[in-house]
Design a protein that fits this description.
The chain is mostly helical. Helix content is about 80%, strand content about 0%. It is globular, with a radius of gyration of 24 Å. The two termini are about 45 Å apart.
Length: about 525
């Protein structure tokens, strides 16, 4: 009975119906390991499916950079119309982002993603069959609204279903898929550029409709956000989702208690709240700090010129000296590969080294590359050396963007706001992002003609240098903290503005149960 005694000492850790082997080597550890693997796979799948709308955005950005060359020839549009066509999507998407916060609070995060896909695909179909600039603009406006929905909801949803330890990596998935979409758009441009002008750009745009099939399938796989379910007072459903997305029941109960507390419906804390938008417009000191950080990082992401670089990379490289359209589109594929490859580096590091170190590397690297690109276009354009440097600095700029500013921006804005405000504040951040993007992309060509393209990049470089200072002074580190602990972090003025020491200064505050 020696073996039986050993088993008896472990029985309290086992399910009653578990199969016990004679040597007693079926410990709870194996069951826990199997559950951990299953949970990680499930959360990973949810993050992937939730990020599919981002492929649509990325593909649109990438494909339009090349398609616009042929649209200009086929429909005889002017340069101003070209800028409006490219840039209006970002401006119009702000309406989707604003509506997305309220919509996701009303119908849930999951079905808001479905709505985003439907609206975008409708717009893409209209653009594909457009016979004039006016019809093309109608499709572009619809696509912009769909993108606005998708841009704001995917990071919020992923942050709300992810376990704390993996939240940074998983919340970066939309940025990965944006970059994959951009690369696919560049490849599509190159692949179909040899077709007749009347046909090629339509096929380029039509290919973007394909991901809708996978988005439809995803709706049958992913669950609703547990935090949204709690706000709807569907606590048992929320517990069920948490059991599927967390590795042990103790963590599930801890997370559920934190969510209940944050939602303001626990027995220990019930209080009246101002309307969401009223609270955002007259914020408390802690919420004001969150808004400064969230809106600031969103705007800096765009006013440093990343969308100008991606949308107009063919024009930039033509200015550097490449004249043939096919060679231009081939060079943009290299830009897409650089942008997509380095986002993977960020995903591997974001939960290991933290958000701020990646932001430092990103903003400093972008500043150097933007100054370098401005100098190259001013001094060396037209020769082989100028072409080589131009491609190098464009690829370097998008690579450094992908290491930090691209993914970390969305991770931070999905982490820092309290639950009751998260969707609407996330929408507000997305609006700032899209407006900044639209202003840059709609004015880049006109401004470049006035102050030269080199001058435009010197301005972007100067703004990028300011972003380094912004990150140092106003962005706290959030690695390893639950969403509810991050909310506590912003309640401390010194923690928010304490540079590299903020987490150490409030260690006891943010780690208390």
């Amino acid at each position: 009975m020696g073996d039986g005694d050993k088993l008896g000492s472990k029985n309290k850790y086992r399910r009653m119906d578990s199969d016990l082997k004679e040597d007693g080597d079926v410990p709870l550890d194996l069951q826990q390991l199997d559950r951990s693997k299953s949970t990680r796979k499930y959360v990973f799948a949810c993050a992937v499916f939730a990020s599919l709308n981002s492929v649509l955005l990325g593909y649109d950005v990438g494909v339009m950079s090349g398609a616009i060359l042929f649209i200009q020839q086929d429909l005889n549009i002017t340069e101003v119309q070209q800028e409006v066509l490219v840039g209006c999507l970002s401006i119009v998407s702000l309406f989707g982002s604003l509506a997305g916060g309220r919509t996701s609070d009303a119908i849930g995060r999951k079905w808001t993603m479905a709505l985003a896909a439907i609206v975008f695909q409708t717009g893409a179909a209209v653009m594909t069959f457009a016979s004039s600039f006016q019809i093309l603009m109608i499709g572009r406006l619809l696509a912009g609204v769909g993108i606005g929905f998708g841009v704001m909801i995917a990071p919020v949803y992923i942050a709300e279903i992810s376990p704390t330890i993996a939240r940074g990596s998983l919340t970066s998935f939309p940025e990965i898929f944006i970059n994959i979409g951009i690369l696919l758009g560049y490849v599509s441009n190159y692949a179909f550029s040899g077709l007749p002008v009347h046909t090629n750009w339509r096929i380029m745009l039509a290919v973007g409709i394909l991901p809708s099939v996978f988005i439809g399938f995803a709706l049958f796989v992913i669950p609703e956000s547990p935090r949204w379910l709690v706000v709807q007072n569907r606590v048992e459903e929320a517990r069920s989702v948490l059991l599927r997305t967390n590795e042990n029941e103790k963590e599930v109960e801890e997370r559920l208690a934190e969510i209940l507390l944050a939602a303001g419906i626990s027995d220990s804390e019930k209080h009246e709240e101002k309307a969401v938008w009223r609270e955002l417009l007259s914020p408390s000191p802690s919420l004001r700090r969150m808004l400064v950080t969230g809106l600031g990082i969103q705007c800096f992401q765009q006013i440093t010129g990343i969308d100008a670089t991606v949308y107009y990379s063919p024009e930039i490289l033509r200015y550097a000296g490449i004249e043939n359209d096919t060679k231009l589109l081939a060079a943009t594929v290299a830009v897409g590969i650089a942008k997509t490859s380095f986002i993977l580096v960020a995903i591997l590091l974001i939960d290991r080294v933290g958000r701020k170190p990646l932001l430092y590397v990103s903003t400093i690297g972008m500043t150097v590359c933007l100054f370098g690109l401005g100098g190259t276009l001013a001094l060396f354009s037209g020769g082989k050396f100028g072409i080589l440097l131009g491609i190098l600095f464009v690829c370097g700029n998008v690579a450094f963007f992908s290491i930090g500013m691209g993914p970390v921006c969305w991770v931070l804005t999905s982490e820092i706001f309290p639950l009751r405000l998260r969707a609407q504040a996330g929408a507000l951040g997305a609006v700032g992002n899209r407006v900044s993007s639209g202003l840059v992309s709609m004015s880049f060509l006109s401004v470049s003609h006035r102050i030269t393209m080199a001058g435009s990049f010197f301005i972007f470089a100067s703004i990028s240098a300011l972003s380094v200072l912004f990150v140092y002074t106003l962005v706290p580190e959030t690695k390893g903290k639950s969403l509810e602990q991050i909310e506590l972090l912003f309640q401390n003025q010194h923690a928010w503005q304490g540079g590299e020491l903020e987490l150490g200064d409030v260690e006891n505050l943010v780690q208390k149960d």
